[in-house]
Amino acid sequence: MDLNEFLEDKYGRRFVTLDVNGSGLLEPEDYEEAATRMCALSGTRPDLGSGRRLVEAYRAAHRSLARAAGAPYGIGRKEFTAVMCDRLAGRPEAFDHGMAAVGELVFEVCDIDRDGFLDERDYCRFLAGYGVPRDAALEAVRRLAPTGRLRLGREEFLAHSRDFYCGTDPAAPGTWMFGVF
Ligand SMILES: [Ca+2]
Questions:
Q1: Contact 40, 46 (CB under 8 A)
Q2: C-alpha 115 to ligand 1 mean position (Å)
Q3: CA-based Rg of the chain, rounded to a whole angstrom?
Q4: Where are the domains positioned within the chain?
Q5: SS3 category, 165
Q6: Backbone torsions φ then ψ of 19, nearest 5 degrees
Q7: Which residues of 63-100 are buried (b: 16+ CB within 10 A; e: fewer)?
Q8: Other C-beta atoms within 10 Å of 115: how many?
Q9: In angstroms, what is the span from residue 85 Cα to ligand 1's centroid?
Q10: 10: pLDDT confidence band, cut at 50, 70 and 90?
Q11: Is the pTM of this model over 0.85?
Q12: What is the pLDDT of residues 145-159, one digit of tens each?
């Protein structure tokens, strides 16, 4: 698989998870729904504290993506992939600058017992927010914790996210963090 093919496949999978309502376009309501669901599954109120910050961060992420794609209401898969390739592929500093803060909020909301780690249940809750099927989520967990129990610290979670968005290595566990399907 050449690099472009790999990136298209990887960002294409992310597109599918973000298109929560399955309309074939990324709309503001997809982002809203993903964040709200993550809150609901974690027992966090979406109108207060970290829940509210997460919903707002997702709204802002959609606005920024829509601006970059020149598609204010709905971003198609091709446009999404093009923006990701342009902004993030091979540019970890762009992740740290623009997206790490959203990852921190996801971590905060999904780490229900606040022990500073995401275990398998926390992680599956995160992916369930996007409607990732359970077997696809469990396979992601296996790739992230090949030797046993998942116990992802905040930095590790961000490192996998950075690998997903910016990395060019199909074998990196982060490549599969949004599910294997
Ligand atoms: Ca949609």
A1: yes
A2: 34
A3: 15
A4: 3-168
A5: helix
A6: -80, 70
A7: eebbebbebeebbebebbbbbbbebbbeeeebbeeebe
A8: 11
A9: 20
A10: very high
A11: yes
A12: 988 899 999 999 999
Report the distance separating Cα 116 and Cα 87, nearest Å: 30
The CB density around residue 29, as the number of other CB atoms within 10 Å, is: 14
User: Checking DSSP bridges between strand 117-118 and strand 152-153, what pairing results, if any?
Assistant: antiparallel
Output the CA 46–ligand 1 centroid distance in Å: 20
Encode pLDDT of 13-54 as tens digits. 999 999 999 999 999 999 999 999 999 999 999 999 999 999
| Mean pLDDT value across residues 162-180 | 93
Summarised one tens digit per residue, pLDDT across range 114-168 is 999 999 999 999 999 999 999 999 999 999 998 889 999 999 999 999 999 999 9
CA of 35 from ligand 1 middle (Å) equals 14
Give the domain 3-168 fold: Recoverin; domain 1 (1.10.238)
From the CB of residue 31, how many other CB atoms can be counted at a distance below 10 Å?
22
